[in-house]
Write a structure and sequence with these properties.
Length: about 130
Amino acid sequence: MRSTHGKLVPIADTSRIERRHPYEQLCDVAVKKSSICIDAAVNILVVDSCSESMEPAGAMAHSATRTFDEEVRKSPPGSALRRLHGIMLITSWGSVGRNSRNVAFAMTKYAAPPMSLKLIQALDSIGLCE
């Protein structure tokens, strides 16, 4: 801090410090937070990040969710991991182009009970569900 004269310095790639890629860090958070997910409810982990390492948001959310799904597959049937329905990532920077956005959502594959078709259609109607 002394060498930066009291100013915060952005760290672009946290994988060197954390020894985990950003999508793996998101998955780690999802695993830790799954224990507080409510049974029989729709549980979506929302992560708000201003880190450039989370760009692009869509790729990070999908990669984290696929990694989380692998953890779920290894878990027993009644595991709390099965309560998480998806990861929503909000970043301070959006992608570039006509369809630019800074919010991405990726559904998990093994959530129980599954999200309703009505909710999936609502997310799809605003461009958050693929």
